[in-house]
Every structure is written in C-alpha cells, then in structure tokens.
C-alpha cells in the first residue's frame, strides 16, 4: 500500500511539473504573438 501511495505522489509530481512547463510554454508563445502584433 505504501508503494502505491509513493507511486501516486510521484505521478502527481510529474503531472504538476508537466502542467507547469506547458503553462510557461503557453505564456511564452502568447508573449511572442503579442510582441509580433505590436511590432506591425
């Protein structure tokens, strides 16, 4: 049972990390688009 909990917490950590990376990438992408829009 403890092993299952450890696996679950590890999975949660990985999911949170992936979500954070995706969020940062999305914000960076939006910033690029906004920058391009303002330059025109």
Question: If you had to describe this structure to a student in words, what would you say it looks like?
Answer:
The structure is a single chain. The chain has 40 residues and is mainly α. The chain has one domain (1-40). The chain is built from 1 helix and no strands. The chain has one helix spanning 2-39. It is rod-shaped.
Characterize the overall form.
rod-shaped
What is the radius of gyration?
17 Å
Number of helices: 1
**Alpha-beta classification:** mainly alpha
The poorly predicted ranges are: none
Summed up, the domain count is 1
Strand count: 0
How much of the polypeptide forms β-strand, as a percent range? Answer: under 5%
- SSE run: H
- What characterizes the major β-sheet? none
Distance between the termini: 59 Å
What share of residues is helical? over 70%
Global mean pLDDT: 95
Features:
40 residues; mainly alpha; 1 helix
Short description:
The chain has one helix at 2-39. The protein has 40 residues and is mostly helical. The chain crosses the membrane at residues 12-31.
